[in-house]
Every structure is written in structure tokens, then in C-alpha cells.
Design a protein that fits this description.
Strands 6-7-8-3-9-10-11 form a seven-stranded mixed sheet, with helices on both faces. It has a four-stranded antiparallel sheet with strand order 2-1-4-5, with helices on one face. A hairpin with a 2-residue loop joins strand 1 and strand 2 (about 30-45). It is α/β, with parallel strands linked by helices. About 35% of the residues are buried. The protein is globular and about 70 Å long. The protein folds into two domains: about 45-75 and about 85-235, Rossmann fold (3-Layer(aba) Sandwich), CATH 3.40.50.300; about 280-338, no CATH class. The chain is built from ten helices and 14 strands. Residues about 1-5, about 305, about 310-315 and about 320-338 have low confidence and may be disordered. The structure holds adenosine-5'-triphosphate (ATP).
């Protein structure tokens, strides 16, 4: 038993997504690519989280593992109570049918083109054999289409729906067997801004009404505005988290607060933001000083230097201040997003 399962605790309190030191290495023509390099991620039950990152940072690789389509090379991963590393073939089928739902970027990949919206939603229920009666399946399909605001396309083929309608029907399909977790890979990638907002609202509805945990992988910065937690992945590791919450001040006025944190993994590793590294010319090694309430990071000045630096500390990590400001020393998140 690894530590990740200690964290899982009981069924009631177990996070819906728990990854610890996840590694995925691809080898093609003798060349090794480390797509995931010790990634740690925890998503609590009922959360809506966006996963962002530059192209090639490992987002799709992670999603393939979380959806049971691929296995990690190393580390531990657990989704909706299922151990994804030790999963048998039968468990994989059960996991993909009942515990997790997916929505892909390509609208055409989500729906069978020769079936209506209702028929598409019924398919996963028929494959799983639940509910037993055909009328009950049709009733459930109607309920889900209504929940997602697409009742008007119930009898239409995908070719006769807009891109946004197709994606909302795709969410209904993914929810057909009442999964605990919904995973989406760039679900708004082919949509314009207004339609994207509708689709994101549909994910929020699924979360609010059905309690489904949602993880959306995206390049789209607008997605981050619709979720309470955004996790940035860089070079195959989670590097940064942005938390959003609404707080009512003493004056009775509600304000949206945004706090940004570097991710610290269980053994104390973290990634410095690239702009910090560039601005201070940090290379190879840095000097750390433990202060009563924070840690200072100083440019290393070579192996022979023993004296602590005397200049003003350039980079300091300290607890986030209240009131929604960023941790001291951390300026606005301007990392590129491709
Ligand atoms: N099947 C594979 N074989 C070899 N290398 C792969 C494979 N899948 C992914 N990679 C490599 O792993 C790294 C991460 O890729 P991944 O597709 O997970 O990134 P991503 O963040 O999803 O990128 P994008 O946003 O462009 O889809 C890249 O260097 C990619 O080339």
C-alpha cells in the first residue's frame, strides 16, 4: 500500500481524483519522452477544476490515464474509488461505463451521427443494461437533455444541431450512467466565445444538480473564469494553482478574490515560475533561507560561497495574504498559454 491510499481514507471522504508521483514515459524509435514527470493532483468530490498548460505539457496524457484509456509508467492514480494502476480488464469496463464520463473536443467524436440526441443518450444505458426498461431509459434521456437545455434537439441527428448543442448533448451522453466524475478534453476548442460559455454553464449545471466532479482540460483562458480552481501543468507536473472565490466584505459588497499558489508536492518539491527564474538569472542551484514565517530563495553564487547574501531578498515565498492578494513576491500570472 502506498501513501496515496492512506490519503484516500474512507469511501465517504475519498477525493474523486488522486494522483501521486505519476510518470508516463513514451518510447518511439528509441527516443524516450517523459510526458508526465512525477505529477501530483488531488480533486475533491464535487469540485469543478480546470487543468491548463502549454501545448506538450502533458494534459492529454494525464486525461488518457484518468479515463482508463492508458496506464502510467509509474506512480499511483485513483479515480472515483478505482485504482487505475492495478485495474483488471473487467474493472476497466465497469469503470468506463459507470464511474467516469468523457467529453472530447471533436464534437463528431462524442456522438453517433446516425442516431438522434435521445438515442445517443440511451446508448450507454443500453450497453450497461440499466435501467432495465426501455421507457425508463427514454425518460432518463429526456431528463438529462432538459437539464442541459437541449430538449429542442431531442429528435435531431447531430448534423442538424449547432456545435454548442452537440457538446451539451455529449455531456448528457457522458452523464447517462450517473458517473461520479466527468472528464473533458478541450470541450470548447471548436466553439466561439458565446457558445463556449453555454457549454461551460452546462458543466456547472451537471455539477450543481447532480454533484458530479468535473475536470476540464483546456487551452481556453475563459474556462478558468468559470471554475473555482485552476491547476497549471508544466513539463509534466502540476506547477501552479489559482483559486477563485466570492467574499462579501464588511461594506456588504461582494468581491471576486483570486489567489495564486505554487504547488508543493508531498516531498516538498515545487517549480519556480519561469519569469522568476529568468528575471533573477537563477541557474543550477539556489540558496534557501528559512525565516520564521517564510522561505527566501537566493541566486546561488557558486560552490565556494559560504556567506549569506546581503542584498535585499529578491524572491520570497510566504503564506498567502488574506483579502485575495497574491502571495508576497508573486506578481500577476502572465505565463503563456498556447
Ligand atoms: N503516444 C505518444 N508517443 C510518443 N510521445 C507522446 C505520445 N503522446 C504524447 N507524447 C508526448 O508527450 C508530451 C505530452 O503530450 P500531451 O499530448 O500530453 O500534451 P498536451 O499538454 O495535451 O498538448 P496539447 O495541448 O498540444 O494537446 C509531448 O512531448 C508529446 O509529444
Amino acid at each position: 500500500m502506498t501513501a496515496v491510499w492512506d490519503e484516500a481514507r474512507t469511501d465517504e471522504t475519498e477525493p474523486d481524483i488522486l494522483c501521486r508521483d505519476l510518470v508516463r514515459i513514451f518510447v518511439t524509435e528509441g527516443v524516450e519522452v517523459q510526458a508526465l514527470q512525477g505529477l501530483t493532483l488531488r480533486v475533491e468530490r464535487g469540485e469543478v477544476v480546470a487543468l491548463v498548460g502549454a501545448s506538450g505539457s502533458g494534459k492529454s496524457t494525464l486525461l488518457s490515464i484518468l479515463s482508463g484509456l492508458d496506464r502510467p509508467t509509474g506512480g499511483a492514480a485513483r479515480v472515483a474509488g478505482q485504482d487505475l494502476v492495478a485495474m483488471t480488464r473487467a474493472e476497466r469496463v465497469d469503470f468506463q461505463r459507470h464511474r467516469v464520463g468523457f467529453v472530447w473536443q471533436q464534437t463528431a467524436r462524442n456522438l453517433l451521427p446516425y442516431l438522434t440526441a435521445t438515442q445517443n443518450v440511451v446508448v450507454p444505458m443500453a450497453l450497461a443494461g440499466t435501467p432495465r426498461r426501455t421507457a425508463a431509459r427514454a425518460a432518463r434521456a429526456a431528463e438529462l437533455l432538459a437539464l442541459l437545455g437541449v430538449t429542442h434537439v431531442a429528435d435531431r441527428l447531430p448534423a442538424h444541431m449547432s456545435g454548442g448543442e452537440q457538446q451539451r448533448v455529449a455531456i448528457a451522453v457522458a452523464l447517462a450512467n450517473d458517473p461520479r466524475v466527468l472528464l473533458a478534453d478541450e470541450p470548447t476548442g471548436e466553439l466561439d466565445e458565446a457558445t463556449s460559455a453555454e457549454v461551460l454553464e452546462a458543466f456547472r449545471t451537471a455539477n450543481a444538480e447532480l454533484g458530479t466532479t468535473v475536470l476540464v482540460v483546456t487551452h481556453d483562458p475563459a474556462v478558468a473564469d468559470h471554475v473555482s480552481r485552476t491547476v497549471r501543468i508544466r513539463d509534466g507536473r502540476t506547477s501552479l494553482e489559482v483559486l477563485r472565490r466570492r467574499e462579501v466584505g464588511a461594506d456588504g459588497v461582494a468581491r471576486d478574490l483570486v489567489e495564486e499558489f505554487a504547488v508543493l508536492d508531498p516531498v516538498g518539491r515545487m517549480q519556480l515560475p519561469p519569469e522568476f527564474v529568468t528575471q533573477l538569472g537563477l541557474r543550477d542551484r539556489v540558496r534557501l533561507d528559512l525565516e520564521p514565517d517564510h522561505v527566501s530563495v537566493w541566486p546561488g553564487t557558486g560552490p565556494s560561497s559560504a556567506a549569506p547574501p546581503t542584498a535585499a531578498p529578491p524572491t520570497t515565498t510566504s503564506p498567502p495574504t488574506s483579502g485575495g492578494s497574491r502571495p508576497a513576491g508573486r506578481h500577476a500570472a502572465t505565463e503563456e498559454q498556447s
